[in-house]
Amino acid sequence: MLVAVFRLLARLPLSWLHVAGAALGRLVYWCSPSYAARLRENLFGSGVCSGEAQCKALLRSAVAEAGKGMAELVAVWFGSDEKVARLVVACEGWNVVEAARARGKGIIIVTPHLGCFEMVSLYFVQRQPMTVMYRPPRLAWLEPLMITGRSRWQATVAPANLRGVRMFYRTLQQGGTVGLLPDQAPGSGEGVWADFFGRPAHTMTLVARLLRATGATVIMVFAERLPGGQGYHMHFEEVPTARFDEAALNRAIEAQVRRCPEQYLWSYNRYKVPAGASAPPGTNSVNRDS
């Protein structure tokens, strides 16, 4: 029933969904003090803005863009194949994908919580197969919707567990492509502490481990949300891997976020201490995952 409802809503113009989403973002911000406090803390502490006026303006934009990110899922996950294929109106850097394919050692697509991150894999799998890792949401009823939305064209979904990691290794060893969100806070034993916008963040080790094991190419990608519901602009950029580690991964993410800071998901609890993990050295963090 929900899928049928969302498919009906997906017929609406993207501009309408973005207007509704911006309103939703403001409503959530004003109705949830904890959400609002985390968004402000992460945004203002990042250093991407300076001065009260600039930071307040960026905050207003970030609140609205977060809401657009929720509303556009209707169009991205449940729109017709033809409509979704038309959502990307510009692409920059696809040549790095072609060059990586020619090397034949596999590709690791890393997509931060920036812009319409759900659009990245759907754009890619219209052209080439890809195995995408997903973490089951806390709301169980969302999981089948997520899998339905992401399982199009040449996409394969892999759970964020040992089975999914094995799928990733196998895909890369065969010269294929895998994709994941590199700025998710990993669980205990799956990450190390590395600076992210000047603060220690528990950062996944999976990307570096995959790279060392396979010699794959790492490509950072984000889908910039264009104003007025015009669609999305894809940005592909190869990440240097000569001295790649978790700190280098975070620096690469920071560089992309600075290009479009209002579209980053600042409300995400990026600096939490995972259950069972020790707090970062030299801190007394109590922001624990529950």
Major sheet strand order: 1-9-8-2-5-3-4
User: How many angstroms does the end-to-end distance come to?
Assistant: 32 Å
| Mean of all residue-level pLDDT scores | 93
Structural class: alpha/beta
Into which percentage range does the β-strand content fall? Answer: 15-25%
What does this structure look like?
The structure is a single chain. The chain is an alpha/beta fold and 290 residues long. The chain has a domain at 87-263. The chain is built from 12 helices and 9 strands. A 7-stranded mixed β-sheet has the order 1-9-8-2-5-3-4, sandwiched between helices. Helix 2 packs across helix 4 and helix 10 (162-173) runs parallel beside helix 11 (206-214). The longest helix is centred in the N-terminal third of the chain and has 20 residues, at 52-71. The radius of gyration is 18 Å and the shape is globular. The model has no long low-confidence stretch (mean pLDDT 93).
Give the gist of this structure.
The chain is of the alpha/beta class and 290 residues long.
Tag the structure with descriptive keywords.
seven-stranded mixed sheet; globular; 290 residues; 12 helices; 9 strands; alpha/beta
SSE arrangement:
Blueprint: H1 2-9, H2 14-31, H3 33-45, H4 52-71, H5 73-78, H6 81-85, E1 88-92, H7 94-103, E2 107-110, H8 117-125, E3 130-134, H9 142-150, E4 155-159, H10 162-173, E5 177-180, E6 191-196, E7 199-204, H11 206-214, E8 217-225, E9 232-238, H12 246-259
Parallel strand pairs: 1-9, 2-5, 2-8, 3-4, 3-5
Antiparallel strand pairs: 6-7, 8-9
Helix pairs in contact: 2-4, 10-11
